Amino acid sequence: MFGALGGPRLLLRRLREVMAEPVSPQARLDKIVVHIAASMVAEVCSVYVLRADGRLELYATEGLNREAVHLTTMRASEGLVGLIAETAEPLALADAQNHPAFSYHPETGEEVYSSFLGVPILRGGNTLGVLDIQNRARRIYTDEEIEALQTTAMLLAEMIASGEVQSIAQPGGDIAVGRPMSLQGSALCDGVGLGHVVLHEPRIVVKQLIAEDIKHEMERLDTAIAAMRAAIDRLIERGNMGPGEHREVLETFRMVAHDRGWLRRLREAVTTGLTAEAAVERVQNDARAKLQRHTDPSMRERLHDLDDLANRLLHQLTGQSFVSAHDQLPENAIIVARTMGPAALLEYDRSRLRGLILEDAGGGSHVAIVARALGIPTVGDLDNILDFVEPGDAIIVDGALGDVHVRPTPDVEHAYAEKARLRARRLEQYHKLRNVPAITRDGVEIELHMNAGLLVDLQHLAETGAVSVGLFRTELQFMLASRFPRMGEQEKWYRSALDIAKGKPIAFRTLDIGSDKVLPYMIELQEENPALGWRAIRIGLDRPGVLRPQLRGLLRAGAGREMRIMFPMIASIAELDAAKAVLEHEVALLRRHGHKPPAELKVGVMVEVPSLLWELENICRRVDFISVGSNDLMQYFYAVDRDNKRVAHRFDPLSAPFLRALKQIVDVARATSTPVTLCGEMGGKPLEALALLALGYRGLSMSAAAIGPIKAMILATDLRVVRGFVASLIGETASAEAGEETLRTTLREFAEHQGIPI
Ligand code: PEP
Ligand code: MG
After folding, report:
1. What is the pTM of this model?
2. N or C of the chain: less Cβ packing under 10 Å?
3. Contact residues for 629 (Cβ-Cβ < 8 A; gap 6+)
4. Residue, of 737 and 637, whose pLDDT is higher
């Protein structure tokens, strides 16, 4: 029941005026509650704000005892106000005192009030406080009143989020918005970044909340919805919405766009006097508050869909296009994105970028691959991070641990600034080591090679002093392309790579696609067991149209130079012979067509399928070098999916059986005089690398960032001592006696005792 002072629209207009008045924040809040109470014919109107310590504090009231302002506080689950904060849902009661959650605060003098209507103050689905009204008489609040109060709460949310309310916080009572937060995600790229939040897709700011003409707003909403649906239909017709998104996903998306409940809520919000865009924001706030709490992934997917739809509608309605943050990147920027394509990351000015945070991207995502190539500290898999940050917020990314600190306290900031300084100093020391040969204390020289996949990686060859590129994952370039690259384009890439490498050899691995590495433009394969399915050389051999142009491009790029080509996922002699036959055929063609061949062609094979361990001698006799892919070897050895978070860490490469297998490989390679390197992740981790040296490995290939720490480890190692120790750990009976699955702790203690930096 709205009083003689007018309906919800008039109230909103009045409040807008109050928002613009040049008064103190407290006076503004005081005026707001007076207006609401008068307009809604309530004896009481109160605003509670959520503090950083999790308590709700009374910030303004009309009708309750004014002395209670800034004195009354409650837990965020206590009383009716606490219940609203906790559930993020409105609560309307005719007989509030008999509600089980009712709690009595004598200082407020509220016992005389019978009816209660409270709504959460929401922003991005997070509760910032509670707004309520109370009446002496028992009364049922109408839906219109509930809606009106919710809309009013949006104004308050704006005021709280703007920082204005924080300025009247009592000492020790900082408010929740803007409070420090620490979150944990997946560590995607090592490094520490301190800076300020830049949103990859800036939020649309709804400036006009109150409708001048409801009918007109309803028409605007309907037109925007129709335009949005038409756009989705067009996407489906085209059959593609961008990499990795498929028809099924789009169909679900279309269904959500036609969801009657959602549309009804949007229209109802307009009826309360909101502009169409404010209605979209209101409804989306509610949806977020409800769905965010769900642990069910399908509900969270739905929230993403709704977010996406709301965003599209807002763009339609405000006519604002996504203003790219690329152009105006401030110094020390930490980009926060739901997700991002790899090309978008490359567009940012690297010199200003200090870190990257991705809500929805794991280690295998393309953007993570590029982030690693560029050495940007990155954390991924951070649910709802976008709800917790505002542009310009101070933020720290710890890409080694996967930690993110939003609005850090001075001590955290200080600790990280120190950590970043130490890291910079260490990097400088590693840099100084770049031309120092990696020789152990007892005189054994180790070759350190670098893994790469993009041209941008190759700049690190000189910076790190790596002797060669031990693994060039050619598929990365393919993953970034929008269609299958032609032979000529490939030839150019490979030639550029060789040019940048300035005479240091590159072991180009032929396409290793399939499983988690998908090419968006190649038909998606739905396989039950993709890691065991049609991938890598299996595709290459079955589809000469894929393998042959690549080999041709490589051979041509290598004209007159040394060319190293390596085949992935070889599981048998027959496969290797077949792959070599294709290569030989291409070499013959090259000559026949009068092209200059490579000065020297070396053929290698990845040892990453366990079956090769029982054919290794024969394999070695057929190739010029081998490279151990310990990532996949480990995956197939223990039958443990390397990308499945539930099982990936179940087994440790530092286990006696796996180390024995690795030893067997290096022993056979040595016996057959076949050069061998190891290019899986373990080669770039100091403790693991130490074990590998002890097994006999003299060549390791790793990410550029790992070379410094590995070299430092090598320079401090006396291999004679380590060799004996590791041999005793993996001797046939050793692990059975110890009953241990991992040798990590024992080895770490040993290394620490020896003063080896690991
Ligand atoms: C491996 O399997 O160890 C490897 C180096 O290849 P990738 O990680 O690209 O599969
Ligand atoms: Mg592999």
Report:
1. 0.69
2. N
3. 568, 606, 607, 608, 679, 680
4. 637
Residues 6 or more apart from 219 whose CB is under 8 A from it?
none
CA 266, 269, 273, 278 torsion: positive or negative?
negative
What is the 3-state secondary structure of 169-205?
CCCCCCECCCCCEEEECEEEECCEEEEEEEECCCCCC
Of all protein residues, the one whose alpha carbon is nearest to atom 4 of ligand 1 is 629
Per the annotation, the verdict on 366 as an active-site residue is yes
Q: Give percent above pLDDT 70 in the chain.
A: 92
Residue 452 CA: distances (Å) to CA of 220, 584, 621, 650: 51, 26, 27, 28
Confidence of residue 4 (pLDDT cuts 50, 70, 90): very low
* Nearest atom, ligand 1, residue 473 CA: 9
**4 CA to centre of ligand 1 in angstroms:** 74
Mutation pick for ligand 1 pocket among 372, 472, 473, 640 (CB with most ligand atoms within 8 Å): 473
Give the Å distances, CA to CA, from 349 to 13, 326, 330, 341: 43, 7, 10, 16
Q: For residue 471, give the 3-state DSSP assignment.
A: strand
> Where do we find the tokens 């509930």?
146
| Closest CA relative to residue 478, chosen from 490, 492, 491 | 490
Quote the tokens at residue 404. 């993110």
Residues 576/617, Cβ–Cβ less than 8 Å: no
Look up residue 326 and give its two tokens.
């690329």
Burial of 630 (0-12, 13-18, 19+ CB in 10 A): buried
Identified catalytic residue from 45, 189, 620, 679: 679
Task: Give the DSSP H/E element, type plus range, for residue 489.
Answer: helix 487-501
- Residues 191, 195, 200: CA angle, nearest 5 degrees: 95
Tokens, residue 267: 């229209």
Sheet with 333-337, edge to edge strand ranges: 181-184, 403-406, 394-398, 192-199, 333-337, 353-358, 378-380, 186-189
679 assigned to active site: yes
At 250, the amino acid letter reads: L
Across the chain, mean pLDDT equals: 88
Centroid of chain to Cα 69: 42
Count CA within 13 A, CB hemisphere, residue 596: 9
What's 730-746 look like in SS3? HCCCHHHHHCCCCCHHH
Query: What tokens does 281 get?
Result: 């924001």
